[in-house]
Amino acid sequence: MLYLILCFLLGFFNSSLLSLSLSLPPTHLCRPEQSSALLQFKSNFSLSISNCSQVHIDSVHKMDSWDEGTDCCKWEGAVCDNKKGNVIGLDLSCSGLIGSLQSNSSLFSLQNLRWLNLAGIGFGNSEIPSEFGKLRSLTYLNLSATGLTGLVPPEISLLSEIVSLDLGVNFLFFRNHDFNMLVHNLTKLENMILDVIDLSLVVPYSFLNLTVSLKHLSLSDCNLQGNFPTQVFHLPYLQNIKLRNNANLSGYLPETNWISPLRLLDVLGTRISKGLPVSIGNLKHLKKLNLDSCVFMGSIPSALGNLTKIAFLDISGNMFQGQIPDVFGNLNDLRSMDFSSNNFSGVFPPSAFNLTSLTFMDFSSNFLQGTLPNNLSGLSYLRELYLSANLLSGRVPGWLFSLPSLEHLDLHSNKLNGPIDPIQEPNLVQQVYLYKNEIQGTIPSSFFELINLASLDLSSNNLSENIKSCMLVKLRNLGFLDLSFNNLLSLTRCSNDVNSALPMINQFHFSSCNMQHLSNNQIHGSITKWEAEGWEGLLTLNLSMNFLTTVEQIPGKHLFILDLRSNSLRGLLPTPPQALCYFLISNNELNGEIPSKICNLRFLYVLDLSKNKLGGTIPDCFGTFSDQLSMVVLRTLNLNGNQLEGSVPQSLKNCYRLEVLDLGNNNINDTFPNWLGTLPHLQVLVLRSNRFHGDIQNFSGTFSFSSLRMIDLSRNEFTGHIPPELFENLKSMKDIQVDKNSVTVTMKGSDFELARILTIFTSIDFSSNHFKGPIPKAIGELNSLIVLNFSHNSLTGNIPPSLRNLAALESLDLSPNKLQGRIPMQLTNLTFLGALNLSHNNLEGPIPLANHFDTFSNDSFAGNSGLCGFPLSKTCGNDQEPKSPPSTVGDESEIALIWKIAAMGYGSGVVLGLSVGYIVFTTGRP
């Protein structure tokens, strides 16, 4: 796109420039050596129409007229003088030529050239030949967007007659010495365009040598570093200066005596700082001011109102603060203003609403207060209005929806608390975002006259109304509708038969509303009609956290995401559309068996049926889909909290991409499914609170749970020894990575549901089984382990000192077992251990006192008759005094680093967030 724009602008500019040259008399022929040089230059190139702009498609035929024996002064793109027949101008910009530029090119024999424009030619990574220094008569040189690479040769500085130099949008770089020589020698320079050239080796103070005749300076995306000299802004003829996207360029604007003919000032994405000086008001000719994403601070001077020629004003993404001065009344040419993402406070400047030429206004992400005016006289041409993330209050005025040109309105995340006023003359607005306010009352019927609406988000308000489906009939373009989290809002069908005209919505969110009118009687037939005749295009449907009791038929044949979580749905599991990828229907009252038809969902990615009353066995069809490619799609299977029986179907081992398997809190009667270890991506395995039994067999093989980061076997009937091979294979628990899903773990004495957790949260819970034998020493290799729970078993032997390596461990529960011996002093090095339970074992000796061990209560050590010392009342003898712990493997800084990384993810060990399904529905919202 940048190339096409350059082609258009440069072609227009240079055709005008060349027309100023002297025309050759019709009878005059150019000199033969000039014609020969041009033909030889032509022979080095071929034509590539794909490189050319469609608006200048005729430019690709520039060389068609270059024929031997004809007058080269009549060739398109060539200009001669009228005395000697020398070629003095050559414009081949945007001609679609590709080839290389060599040092022996015949171009350099045309030493009378004054204008040379080769912009847009594909030179294929050629370097700039030093022979350009021979073209001493050049006043205009444009080599932009040509694919040139390498060092800009110092010979360019020999072109002392140059008035305009454009080398931009190439892969070139300058050495500091060469650049100094360039700006020192080119004393007639008026235009210097070096965008995208690497100037990281150039010291910014080199720009102090720029000639006073300079009018246009463009240095965008040049990797400039250091302080840009303020004196450059004082150049007496400077009209345009662009320094944008130089992230390491600092400096500040002139604070005094800044009188300049500047028309454009663009320092976007730099480190230009300090305040906006009062002297900015002296720039009477300024049309564009872009200070976006800099480091400006302080208040806005009233002198900003003196910029009566300004058309584009962007000061967003800074640290400006205080009241915005109400000085916009005279800025009649202003078309775009962006004050977003600052720290402005106080009331909104009223004069901004009276700007007659404005098309874009953004004051979002500030601390602006007050109410919106009841009426206004301007903004007739406004297309986009962003006032979101402020502290605005009061009503939503109806004039917002009567602005004749408005297309996008965003007022989300304010404190608007009044109703939406009636709309007198509905406009053509397409996108309306009013979510996260405190808007009360009903939605005016005139709101549904906004026939161009494509996206409407009124979620997270206090709206109260019974919306009838026929009210949406006129919104034929509506594709996104979110009415979630309005507790008094409901939706019912109309009594007449107009549902067939419903809009083709593809995302519908009605989460956490009062949906009683969609339960049982009211829903019967309505959703079926929507699906059959109105909502075939529905892709996303969120009806979670309502009071739905029955869903007879799910709308949307092409539904991609369906969220029916946390309702009161009863009966059998509804059959979803076959295109479904995310099916979330947890926390309901569904009963019956899981139908085998569920396996017909060939694109199923996440299936969450947890917390229902589903019975029977797990269908054996998982992993045996008819489409063999489908078995690799399923990532999450959550059946927790049902009444499932039988065994775990071995067909699950075919779900190659499975990451989360949660079968907890059911009645499954089986041995440990060690074959799941072959799933290379399995990260979460929850089998807790079932009837699993028997020994855990030895583990071997390439994919033996190598990606597992959470395993919960608690509250089952497992027996035998805990195999060391299991922990040796848990490679992912030796690293810190990221995963996001929802499971329940026992930590610090309580059950927690970790919704969409980070897998830096790693845990092992084998509690409440019948395990015996020693604790495997190999567990000490799991460096990223956060929770370890072996409680309520019959483990024997000593507590292994290797546990000292669990530097990130927060919770350790080994109660009650049959462990013996002393508490290893090495455990005192677990400085992030917040919960410890060693009670009801056969431990003996003194309780270590080093580090934070003295913060644990008596309950952590109770029921060990051989233990002594604080916090127990039993004191130790002199020969039992605890010793200082030995040094750990790795220093404290390494442990601290692990903790800092972990803390970013889950704070004190638990991150409560939104489940995978809900996150899917909130993506795309600001």
Automatic annotation (TrEMBL):
Species, as recorded: Gossypium raimondii (Peruvian cotton)
Keyword rRNA-binding on entry: no
UniProt protein name: Leucine-rich repeat-containing N-terminal plant-type domain-containing protein
Membrane-crossing residue ranges in chain numbering: 897-921
Key word Thylakoid present: no
Membrane topology: Single-pass membrane protein
GO biological process assignments: post-embryonic development
Pfam families to which the protein is assigned, alphabetical: LRR_1 (PF00560), LRR_8 (PF13855), LRRNT_2 (PF08263)
Signal peptide: 1-23
Domain of life: Eukaryota
Domain spans labelled Leucine-rich repeat-containing N-terminal plant-type: 33-81
SUPFAM superfamilies: L domain-like, RNI-like
Subcellular location: Membrane
UniProt cross-references to SMART domains, sorted A to Z: LRR_TYP
One cellular-component annotation, GO: membrane
GO MF annotation, one: receptor serine/threonine kinase binding
Keywords associated with the record: Glycoprotein, Leucine-rich repeat, Membrane, Repeat, Signal, Transmembrane, Transmembrane helix
